[in-house]
Each structure stands twice: as structure tokens, then as C-alpha cells.
Write a structure and sequence with these properties.
- It is a single chain.
- The chain is an alpha+beta fold and 163 residues long.
- It is built from 4 helices and 7 strands.
- A 4-stranded antiparallel sheet has the order 1-2-3-4.
- The chain is elongated.
- The two termini are 36 Å apart.
- It comes from Aeromicrobium fastidiosum.
- This is PH domain-containing protein.
- Keywords: Membrane, Transmembrane, Transmembrane helix.
Amino acid sequence: MDNLFAPAVGEWQRVSPRLATVRRILLSSAAAVVVLVGVVLVLVLPDLWWIGTPVAVIGLAGGVWGWTWAGRNQRSWGYAENADDLLVTRGVMFKRLVAIPYGRMQFVDVEAGPLDRAYGIATVTLHTASSETAADIPGLPAEEATRLRNRLTELGESRGAGL
């Protein structure tokens, strides 16, 4: 079954482990807010402990789950540059493989929020006419995102010239 998701040529290029770090920071922050709300409910309204306690426990459980998920998700991302298309794979439980022909690319986005920039990573998004074949590659080191954007733009222009 693993051959189903193997690139035809070469090996998968993996995204930066810093993607997991950024996602852990975001998920931990959200979980901390939920835990804090639960604790405040218990302290301020002790008669409603039966609401505050589950909220705090759910926040804590969500934080632990998110911490584990971030690492597994980061390790599942990969991309491979073939002669005619770009392959992008992701997913742990439900794997997905998208093949995007260079000639079908309309434009390439590079995006990085403040936390992404602080950790030196970016997301490259490939757009085609079909929303089904658009693909994101999050967590690329900034230099690799720039290289990939330039290469894909160049290949897209040369391959799409006959359309």
C-alpha cells in the first residue's frame, strides 16, 4: 500500500520540523485559554464547578492531543518535483497525494504569518483552475520556499505557454 503514495522518481522532500513547533505554540496557547476559563469558572463561581472542571479537563486533553498531532502531522507532509508535475502528500490516518502538472499552474503564493517568520518557515500554495488540485506545502524553510516558488513559476510559464 505504501507504493501507492511513493513518488515515481526520487524521494519525498520533507517540511521543516519547525512547523510542528509553530503549531504546538498555537495549539498550546488555545488550550491554555480553555483551561484558564475552566479554572476561573471554578474559582469565581464555585457552585458551577461541574461546568468549570470539565472545561479545564477538555482544554488540558486538547492541549496534549494537539501536541502529539502537531509532530505526526508535520512528519506526514512531503513533496517531490518530477519532470512534468509536482507531487504533494500529507496525512497520517487519511493519506492524500496530489499531482499538479506544471502546465496547469496558474500562480504560486508564498505566505508566512508572524510566528512563521519568527521560526523562518513559509507556506507555498499552488493554484490551478480546479480547486481540487490546488495544494499547500506548509513549513518550508524560507530559502526553500523562495527557490520552489521561483522554480514552479518558471516551469509553469514554460509549460503553460501552449495553452
